[in-house]
Structures are given as C-alpha cells and as structure tokens.
Design brief:
Layout: H1 3-26, E1 30-35, E2 39-40, E3 44-49, E4 53-57, E5 66-67, E6 87-90, E7 100-105, E8 113-122, E9 137-141, H2 146-152, E10 154-161, E11 165-175, E12 178-189, E13 195-200, H3 203-211, E14 214-224, E15 230-240
C-alpha cells in the first residue's frame, strides 16, 4: 500500500472512530432530579429516542415523575412511583417516546413541573402489545441507626409497589472502603400496600457495623408483574451511631 493510500485509510478509520464515539455520547443516560425545597433540579431534560432516563430524588420529601399526557392504556405516558429521599428509579415509558416535547409534573407536589424533549436521534423501543408497564417500587430504609442494625444483625426496609408484583431485594453496606453484600428475600406483594422485609448481615458485616461511626447503605430491588414486565428501584442512606 502506498503512503497516500495509507493516509486515506487512516483518515477513514479516524472518522469511523469519531462517529462511534459521537453516537455513544449521544446515547448516554439522562436523569431528572428533585432537590430540597420540593422542586425539580432539572426542569428541562433532553434525550434521544430509546435512551435510558432515570429519576433521582435528593429531597427529604417523596416525589415522582408523571407525564401530563396519557398513553395507549389510559395511564400516564411515562412516569415513576413515589420515590423517597436518596431513591432512584427508571422513568418507565420514556423508552417508547418518539421525537417531540412532553410535559411532566410531580403528582404529590403539582407545582413541580418540567419538560422532556426527545430528539430525532436514536430509535424508540418497540412498545409491547397489551400490558407493557413495568411495576414501579418505592423503598425506605426503616432501621434508625447503626447500633440497631448491629444489635439485631439485620437491616429493616419497607417498600411499596404500584401493582401486584414479585419483588427481589438486595443491599450493600459500605463501612470505610469495604463493601458488605446483604442478600434479601423475594416476595409476592399486592400493589399500593406497604410491605416490610429484613436483610441479614454476615458475621463480618455485623462486626464492622458494630465498630463503625457511620455506614452508607444502598438497598436495591427488581420487580416483575404477571405479564413479565420488569422494573427496578433503589435508595441510599447514611446510617450513623
């Protein structure tokens, strides 16, 4: 191959790499966030078609994301259940949106409003026939402090789903730079009804928590309804002595 041809080939490769990186950047996850004062920190969010969109609640009050427009099933076009402080959940239904502008609000605090803009980049996910909405979940860490967790040897949580679902729980406790995994139960629950669960600590985790001044606790859950739709949610909180 001549030098001239090599230079052309190199330029073509560079262009391909740049295009690939540009596409990856365009499809980065987007997030709606709520913060102190019962307000959306992001009142204007832009995403590509089919892109992943999540909601993070950084306020002490519970909030949700609810589309003002209705979907084919008569329910909001996209949304989340009520999420407690430190919680994160996917905005279900946003993956099916085509290019356009969509308004959303918090059904708990209607003064909280925002706008979601979907660009023509990407491809919307195909909306399944029939029931296509994943069951949403809101989780709360019920253990009040570290001494209680250490004494009982378990982490107490409460959660509620917005429809009947199978819920699988798990948690991680970070003490310093060490992470301890807690395996949780799998429960069949009814919708809109608060359920309680306990996640047992291992001997090493219990010992670490007993001597710690604080620990960062993350509880996550996966949900599945009778139609096979799957969802997820999580919450994070720092427990102290």
């Amino acid at each position: 191959m001549s030098f001239g041809r090599l230079r052309v080939a190199s330029a073509a490769c560079a262009a391909a790499v740049a295009a690939a990186l540009g596409g990856a950047s365009a499809l980065a996850d987007q997030q709606i966030a709520a913060g102190p004062g019962s307000r959306y920190l992001t009142t204007s969010v832009t995403m590509a078609q089919g892109e992943r969109l999540t909601f993070a609640n950084r306020d002490v009050a519970s909030h949700d994301v609810t589309s003002k427009a209705g979907g084919p099933d008569g329910k909001p076009l996209f949304g989340t259940p009520a999420i407690g402080t430190g919680g994160t959940a996917p905005v279900e239904g946003s993956q099916y949106l085509s290019a356009g502008t969509y308004e959303f609000f918090c059904s708990i605090h209607p003064n909280m409003e925002g706008t979601l803009t979907v660009t023509s980049a990407g491809t919307p996910a195909r909306r399944p026939a029939g029931d296509s909405r994943a069951p949403g979940i809101s989780i709360r860490i019920a253990s009040p402090d570290l001494p209680t967790v250490a004494r009982k040897g378990k982490l107490a949580v409460k959660f509620v789903t917005d429809e009947a679902a199978t819920v699988k729980l798990a948690a991680t406790i970070r003490v310093g730079k060490r992470d301890f995994a807690l395996k949780g139960p799998t429960r069949e629950v009814d919708g809109d009804r608060t359920s309680s669960a306990s996640l047992a600590l291992s001997g090493k985790a219990k010992k670490a928590v007993a001597h710690a001044k604080k620990a960062r606790v993350t509880v996550s859950a996966t949900t599945q309804d009778a139609s096979g739709n799957r969802g997820s949610g999580s919450t994070t909180r720092t427990l102290r002595r």
